[in-house]
Design goal:
The complex is a heterodimer of chains A (235) and B (219). Chain A is mostly helical and 235 residues long. Chain A has one domain: MetI-like fold. Chain A contains nine helices and no strands. The longest helix of chain A has 44 residues. The termini of chain A are far apart. With 219 residues, chain B is mainly alpha-helical. Chain B has a single domain, classed as MetI-like (MetI-like fold). The radius of gyration of chain B is 21 Å and the shape is elongated. The chains are: A mainly alpha (235), B mainly alpha (219).
Chain lengths: 235, 219
Amino acid sequence: MAAASLNGKRKDTSSFMTQWSGYLGLILQGALVTIELTLMGSVLALIMAFLAGMGRVSRFFIVRAIATAYIEFFRGTSIFVQLFWAYFVLPFAGLSLTPLQAGVLALGLNVGAYAAEVVRGAILSVGREQYEACTALNLGRWQGMRHVILPQALLVMLPTFGNNAIELLKATSVVSLISLADLTFQAQVVRSQTGSTLMPFLSVLIIYFALALIISWRVRTLERRMARGLDGVRV
Amino acid sequence: MDWDWNFVWEIMPTLIQGVKITILATILGSILAAIVGLAIALARRSENRIVARSIGWFAEFIRGTPLLVQLYFIFYVLPDIGILLPPLVAGVIGLGLHYGTYTAEVYRAGIDNVPRGQWEAAKACNLNGRHTWTHIILPQAIPPMIPALANYFIAMFKETPLLSAITVLELMNQAKSVANTYYRYIEPMTLVGVFFLVISLCSVVLLRWLEHRYGRIER
């Protein structure tokens, strides 16, 4: 801190510029961590969403019960509580996680629970006649799911998945509170080192927004690609 | 992992105090979000294209960025331009503004759901713009959107722990301070989870009742 304020006193215009570029570098490093978290969290969320979402439409009671308990639990408690629990309580149970692992775990499980409901809703939204057609073609339950139901349901899920991914991106900011050096964390570092507040927070907000725009743009492209060949099939 | 019931009873009063602040923040935030959302929804229907467009982008921006950073922004940046807010007020403004952009979408859907004939009838009765809104459109638009609004208020409740980052002494912050004092994390953190689960399960029951009472909004 003392060194930082000393630096601040000594700065002239040229070192001022190098300082800012240094701080911008910090923020960009944070952006990389945020992107990494978002990607890994999304992968875990996607896996959990399909496991739990298809679990909820299972014909076995026990599978349905487990899936429902998972979804209700993770949607009922806040992401923040889950993250702190994973980071501070699990070590007492003998499972020590790094901040990154705790972050990915909490984000993936939390958003996965929300996305599971999307999977369930999409599967149920596929018309009855499609299921009857599967029976008529003598497809097994799994075969019918794999070749007939899911390809149609996926298209219904996609826009909401995009929203979920953006929610996940936004939720990554809470990992800064368990000392993981993401965008939000670096903004706080820059704030405490320079005493400037507008520049770090505004630039971080803009980066988050840009990332959110990229996600929604990617999802829309993907949607258009997947919709190809399905026109006329959907009612 | 050992669970100590005595410790649980000892810290309970502190946590209850936190719950009160959490609920207070949620209620105030919900009221603000309900107002902000309506304002945004109306502004986006404004005939002034520039107003409508810029409010739309502003709402999009707020919705695409994390609440935590927005809270930091309100808490750290505003004092630099002379607006010094107490933590709880900053938190409520953050919650209200963030969720206001979500409720705006609910209002939009609700208003769009009012049949065209109602607008035409209002015009036929020679009502002016303000009377059309207050007497014809909003009274029909708002009841069906109550469950969807409540849904966002429950979501907001689950984001209130973020206020601990700007030093509001709500449930999470109380639990953290207790945990740091005694260096026991298991009970405080688990209890916070239990509190959240219980309150949100209760609010889901309330939500089901609201849906039953007012019906679901068609999207």
